[in-house]
Amino acid sequence: MIRIGCIFNAIAAGGFMSLEYVNSVQIFHNSKFSVQFSWALDFVQELFKGLLLDWFGSVVGLLISSFLSYLVGYQGPFAFCEKVMKQRKKSMVMNKEMVIGFQANDFYQIQNDDFEIMRNNQIVEIELSDKNGKKQKEETVFKLRSKIERVDTENDLDDKSINVDIVKDIEDSPRAESLMNNSGLIIDDQNDKLETSIPKDRVHYLHILQSPRGLMACLDIILCCQMFTFCDTSLPYYLEEEFGFNPSIVCLVFVAQSIAFVITCLFASKLTKRFNLMLCIIIAQVIQGVSAQLIGPNQMIQLPKLYWLTILGLLINGGASSMTIIPPYKQLEIALFEFKGKNFDHEAIKDTVSGGFNALYDLGATTGPVFGYYVTALTDFTFTSNLQGYLLFFVSLIQLLFFYIPEKLEENRNKVIKIKPTTIASEQNLREQDIKRLQQRMKDQIDRQINMTQ
After folding, report:
1. What is the pLDDT of residue 372?
2. Which CA distances in Å does 121 have to 114, 115, 146?
3. How many whole angstroms separate alpha carbon 160 and alpha carbon 166?
4. Would you say the pTM of this structure is higher than 0.70?
5. How far is Cα 29 from Cα 419, in angstroms, rounded to an integer?
6. How far is CA 113 from CA 89, 182, 234, in A?
7. Cα–Cα distance between 54 and 11 in angstroms, integer?
8. Which of 325, 309, 303, 324 is nearest to 256 (CA)?
9. Alpha-helix runs per DSSP H in 25-182
10. What is the model's pLDDT at position 311?
11. What dihedral do alpha carbons 315, 320, 324, 326 form, nearest 10°?
12. Rounded to whole angstroms, what are the CA distances from 36 to 31, 33, 40?
C-alpha cells in the first residue's frame, strides 16, 4: 500500500510540474477563459502542493520502515515487538501455572494422605478391639466402609464446593499470592483458549456503517478532520487581504492550532477514561463550533474582524480536536464489539478499526480544503467558517438527543431492575455451609460407631 501511495503521489508531482509548465505558456492566458482557468489553476496547484508534502512524508516513512524491516526481519519492527511481548506473556503464564499446579498437587496429596491414614487407623483399631467376634467385626467394618464410600461419593458430587476451598487455600499461600497480585495472565490465557474454540465471524467495514454508534463515530472523525483543515486553502488569502500578513506570519498563525492539539492530546486519554465517551465528543464539538465563529468572526453577532480572534479560535479548535478524534476511535471498537448476532475476533476488530479510522481521517483531510476553498469562492471566508461551526452544532445535537440521553435512560432503568449480586453470593455461601455440616455429621457418626465397637 505504501508503494502504491508513493506511485500515485509521484504521478501527482508530475501533474504539478506539468501545471507549472502550462502556467508559463502565454497562449492559455490569452484565451477567453483566462479568468476561470487561472482560478481553477490556483486551486489545483494548492492541492498538488499538499500532495507533494504528503509524498515526501510517504517516501521518508517507506525508507524508515524498510531499514527497520531489514534489521529486524520479515516481520517488521512492530510485529517484532508484539512477538516479544507475547513470548514474555506466555513464559509468565507457564511459570505461574507450574507454581499454582505445584501448590494444588501438594494440597491434594496432603488431603488424600490424611484421609487414608485416618481410614486405615480406624480399620486397624476395629480389628484389634474385637478378637473373638469375627462376625461382628466383619459387619462393622463393612458398614463403616460403605459409609466412607458414601462420603467419598458425596465429595465427588460436591467437587465444585471443595474446589472453592482448595483454591482459597492455594491463594492464601505466599508464592501464589505474590503471583496473583502481579498479573491476571492465567485468567486471560484461559479466556483466550475458550475464545479460540468458538468459531469467529468475519469482520467487514460495512459492519461499522450498519451500527448507529459506528456511523456517528465515522461522521465525527470526518467532521473533526474537516474542521482542522478547511482553512488550509482559504485562511492565507483572508489574512493577507484583511490584515496584510506576509507568508512568514501566516505560518505562525497556523502553528497555533497544531500546538494546542499536541498539548491536549496528552490529557485526552485520561479524560475519556473518567467520563462518558459520547459526552466528551458532544462537548468538544460544541467547543469547536464556538471556535469556528471566532476563526471567521461571525457578523450576525457583530464580532469585529481582529486577527487575535482568529488566532484564539484556532487555539480553541486545536485543543478540542483531540477530544473529537480520540474518543470516536474507541466508539468504532465498541460498535463492533456490541454488534448483535456476530462473534468477531478481537484482533480482527482492532485491525478493521485501525484501517477504517485512517481512511476516515484521510477523507476528512480531503473534504476540508475542498469545502473551504469552494464555499469561500462562492461566499466569503467568514461565512465558510461559520457554516462549519453550524454543522458541528447540528451533529452534536443529534448525538445528544438520539444517543446520549437514551443511553443514560437505559442505564438508569437497568439499575432499578438489576438483581443484587449479594443475594446470589449469600445463597452460594449457605449451600457451601450446608455441605460442610453434612460432611461433619457423617464423620461424627463414624467416630461414634468406632468408639462403640471399642
Report:
1. 93
2. 11, 10, 16
3. 10
4. no
5. 79
6. 36, 33, 86
7. 13
8. 309
9. 34-72, 76-129, 134-157, 159-172, 174-182
10. 94
11. 90
12. 10, 5, 6
The pLDDT score that the predictor gives to residue 88 is 58
Q: CA angle 369-375-379, nearest 5°?
A: 140
CA neighbor of 231 nearest in space, from 257, 262, 249: 257
Name the one residue in this structure whose C-alpha cell is 465397637: 453
Cβ atoms within 10 Å of 430's Cβ, excluding its own: 10
Q: What is the DSSP string of 206-237?
A: HHHHHSHHHHHHHHHHHHHHHHHHTTTTTHHH
Distance CA 277, CA 268 (A): 11
- How would you label 112-139 residue by residue, b for 16+ Cβ within 10 Å and e otherwise? eeeeeeeeeebbeebeeeeeeeeeebee
What residues contact residue 193 under an 8 Å CB cut-off, 6+ apart? none
pLDDT, residue 230, reads: 93
Residue pair 234/370 in contact (Cβ under 8 Å)? The answer is no
Per residue in 62-116, pLDDT tens?
Answer: 555 555 555 655 455 555 556 655 665 566 656 555 545 544 455 445 555 555 5
Residues of the chain with pLDDT under 70: 1-197, 416-431, 453-454
The span from the CA of 48 to the CA of 12, in Å, is 6
CB 257 within 8 A of CB 231: no
| Cell representation of residue 408 | 443514560
Among residues 233, 373, 379, 203, the alpha carbon closest in space to that of 299 is found at 379
Q: What whole-number distance in Å separates Cα of residue 291 and Cα of residue 299?
A: 14
CA separation, residue 286 to residues 146, 384, 399 (Å): 78, 17, 12
Report the alpha-carbon distance of residue 240 to residue 113 in Å, rounded: 92
Q: What b-and-e string marks burial along 178-194, b requiring 16 or more CB atoms within 10 Å of the CB?
A: ebbeeeebeeebeeeee
- For 233-282, give the DSSP string: TTHHHHHHHHH---HHHHHHHHHHHHHHHHHHHHHHHHHHHHS-HHHHHH
Residues written for the chain:
454
- CA atoms within 13 Å, Cβ hemisphere of 343: 7
Whole-number pLDDT of residue 285 = 95
Query: Is 395 exposed, middle or buried, given 0-12, 13-18 or 19+ CB atoms closer than 10 A?
Result: buried
Distance between CA atoms of residues 291 and 312, nearest Å: 8
CB 230 within 8 A of CB 317: no
